[in-house]
Structures are given as structure tokens and as C-alpha cells.
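Box 4.2: Ligand-aware structure prediction
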Amino acid sequence: MGNADNRTKRSVMTIDNYIGGFWKEPASGKRMSNLNPARRSEVVGLVPDSELGDLNEAVEAAEAARRAWRKLTGAQRGALLYKAADLLESRMDEIGRTMTREMGKTLGEAKGETARGAAILRYYAGEGMRPVGDVIPSTDSEALMFTTRMPLGVVGVISPWNFPVAIPVWKMAPALIYGNTVVWKPAAETAVTAALVTACFHEAGFPAGVVNMVVGEGALIGQGIAEHPGIHGITFTGSGNVGKRVGLIALARGAKYQLEMGGKNPVIVAADADLDLAVDATISGGLRSTGQKCTATSRVIVVRDVYETFKAKLAEKVKALRVGDGLEAETWLGPCASEKQYETVLRYIRIGVEEGAELLFGGRRPEDPALAEGFYVTPAVFDRVKPSMTIAREEIFGPVLALIEAADLEEAIAIANDTEFGLSASLYTRDIGSALTFIQEMEAGMVRVNAETAGVELQAPFGGMKASSSYSREQGQAAIEFYTSVKTVFVKP
Ligand SMILES: NC(=O)C1=CN([C@@H]2O[C@H](COP(=O)(O)OP(=O)(O)OC[C@H]3O[C@@H](n4cnc5c(N)ncnc54)[C@H](OP(=O)(O)O)[C@@H]3O)[C@@H](O)[C@H]2O)C=CC1
Ligand SMILES: O=C(O)CCC(=O)C(=O)O
């Protein structure tokens, strides 16, 4: 993997692809630099700029491994997942620090995410011992009819930079336990973290070719995965534009696909809400990970009776959040993950102001000269946002909250539903009737009452409605639906 001895230090790690059980230089020998978003002059790693030849080699390795892998028992595959979980957990500090240096989230969040990766691996390791299929009564009294499941074959995993451990693990762990082999293209921006995760699979003793990692430009290697005839299923998390493209390519060649894309997640604050609880959840749901979660709260829809009180409480707490390097213990909010993301956030803040929303707080570079070299922006709160404004409609993926006033709960739910997205939504209320109306009316894959919009439990289905996903669900027992095909068996003596 290169420079492994210096993993936790501020040294530059040189990363290779992982193909057929070996760390391999990209055929071109070319590499890209990954920068620390907290300090743009600091190079965290040199990561492969792979070509299609590297991808082809990985697909061949995955194809060569898949029959023997499928023939192992679930318990045998699960034993390897348990080992990978133990390794990931034992390296929580090293992986967390690398993640923070590579994409900026605070060390606490990065370590928490790594621990979550280990928990996901253990959940799916156990899945190797759980029942599969149903016995179905046949109309023929002599016959036995039942369902079983087959793995898809080679699964292509295309993952983003915002959860560089949890998302690929929640895709790879079920793919593997159900008997598939994997070719993983992590986001190039977090490929050093990805290599540390891959090292856990390698050292756990997964047979050669079962897990492969190829790092390169999304438009080449990601698209190459979508197009590759040797890849039978593609699971993608990222932007809507790329996701739709991946889906269209997969559909055209008859491959199975699953897309998790953006969100424009609302929190509704009802007149009877516990306002302190709602404020804390808005801050945590909207601004943790610098707002770079597909489940992040971005629209804060507050019923008129409590709008001004809620706004004052929110502004006071947001002002107190400490922006800084995620490695510093006192930092609450790290930098945006990249210059591209930073420019996007600043552009949306400009658009918000131009369209007439009132910038109540933040949305600027911090004044501290120690932060001048990073992609920092102070958390922004916009007041008097209209549902038609761009900042209320498009996914920003940054620390920006848009406050929208609603006359009552009915109008709040109508505003919440007036979006192309439908990933997550929350309501703060003390009234059971309001909660039930919200649960019934809200068009979102995850609805949460008195809980923030972000926060995914690994054992529950995760996914969105409308443009947020391809209607499929990940995680928990739902994952089996994507990573396997049902086979109906009819046996007569
Ligand atoms: N739903 C979510 O969790 C996420 C949503 N987003 C949204 O997307 C916006 C842009 O982020 P960005 O990183 O550019 O997201 P992308 O959709 O570009 O990236 C997601 C993954 O897809 C890969 N990719 C890029 N282009 C292609 C392609 N043509 N075919 C196949 N794969 C491809 C990327 O590779 P590489 O990056 O190496 O080029 C990465 O691995 C964010 O501002 C946010 O709104 C982003 C990340 C996660
Ligand atoms: O909220 C979470 O923990 C998961 C969010 C997520 O899946 C994403 O941002 O892509």
C-alpha cells in the first residue's frame, strides 16, 4: 500500500490499486494528489489515476474468484467479515485521522464512522447464518416448492467521499456475504482512507480477487464500471446527475443497479414542539459533517406561532459553534471537503442573498488567520426563505440552513413535500395526532419524529423516494433484495 509505517503521521501516503489480492501500481504509473481541506498546501496522499486496463484486470480477478467464493458457506464468508470488522475497529484511530485529514470531518465523527463500519461488517457477518428463502405451498401435493437466492456475480461499488468508510462498507459487506465478488471505485478524494479499509479485507484473509479496489477519475473508472459487461450489478451513492447516468447505462445493458442520491431534507417545527430539542436537532442534523450528508437538514420549516422564538434560539447556538481543523479537539465544524465543494457552498450563499433571503448569520470565511489556508465557511442561517428560492430547492451539501415560515402544520407538510427529493424528514411536536399525520403525508423514505433528519441505523432499510434514490433500499435485511436474485425451486420425487 506504500509508506504504511507513516500512516498516522502527517506524511504523504502513496496508494496503489488492490487487484487479485495484490497492491498494484496503476498501469500508467500516474497518480493524483489528495489535499487536506484544512490546509490546502498539505498533500495527504498520492492516489492512482487508473485507466480502463486497470479496471479490466480487476473485473477479471473478480470473475475468476466468484465461483469458489459463492461455494463457501455463509458461516465461512461471515468469519472473514468478522475478522475484517476486528481489524477496522483496532485501527479506528489511524483510519479516523486519515479520514479527517482527507475530507475534513471532525475526528470524533471520523472515528465514530469507522466504528460504525465495524458494526456493519459484524451485522452482515451474522447474516451468513440466517435463513434465506421461503417454503411455499404447491398445488401439487407431492411437490416441494421453495425460494432460494443466487448472488448477482461481480458487483461494482461506486462510493462518494462524504462517508468514506460507512457507505462502501454498507455496500460491500452485504455484497460479499451473499456470495458476490466486488470491484470498488472509491471517490478519488478519499482514496487513502479507502486503501486503509481495503487493507483490512486483505489482512482478514479474503481470497484473492474477492475484493478489488481501483482508484481513478469517476468519469473514466466509475463510468467504466457502469459500462463493463463483466459487472453484473452496480451500487452507487453520489450526485443525482451522475447517478442517473449510471442508471441509464446499466439499464441499457441489462445490469442490475441501485442509486442513492441527494436530499433536501426538511425539519418541521410545530407550534407545540420542544424548541430547545428542535434547535439542537436542527444544528446536529444540518451542520454536523459540515452539512455534507445526503440526510442533512437543509430546510427548517417553522410554524408561525414559534418562528421568532425558534430563530433567536437557533442563531444564538449556531454563533457559538467552533469552526476549525477537525483534528483539533475543540472543533465542532470542520472545513468543506474540497475546493469544489467549498466553491459550491459559497455560490449558493451568494444566490440566496441575490434572491432576497436574509443572511442572518455566517456564510463567510472565518476571520482567524490560522484558518486562511483551509476550505472553511462559517455555518450559515438564512431567514425568510421562500420555498421557491434556489437555496430551498437545490441540494447544497454544506453548512447552510434555510428558515421557512409556515402558517400551520398542514402548510408546513405541503412545503416539505414540495421538492424533487424525498430522502429524510423530521417533525418536532408533542402531539400524537400531528405525528401520525406527518408519518402518513410525508413523501420521504425516512420519517422521524422528535429526532434529527440524519442518523441511519445499520439494521433498518435506508433509501429515499422521488429523485433521492432508485426506489431500492440499502442496509438491514433490505440489502438482500439488491445483491441477490430469487430462484423459485419446484421439486417432485
Ligand atoms: N448522496 C450522497 O451521499 C452524496 C451526494 N453528493 C452530491 O453530489 C454533489 C457533487 O459531489 P461529487 O463528489 O462531484 O459527486 P459525484 O456523483 O461526482 O461522485 C460520486 C461518485 O461517483 C463517481 N463518478 C463521478 N463521475 C462519474 C461518472 N461519470 N460515472 C460513474 N461514476 C462517476 C465519483 O468519482 P470521483 O469523485 O473519484 O471522480 C465518486 O466515486 C455534492 O455537492 C452533493 O450535492 C455527493 C456525494 C455524496
Ligand atoms: O446520515 C447518515 O449517517 C448517512 C448519510 C448518507 O448516507 C449520505 O450522506 O450519503
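In the box above, the bound molecule is NDP. The first strand starts at residue 13 and ends at 14.
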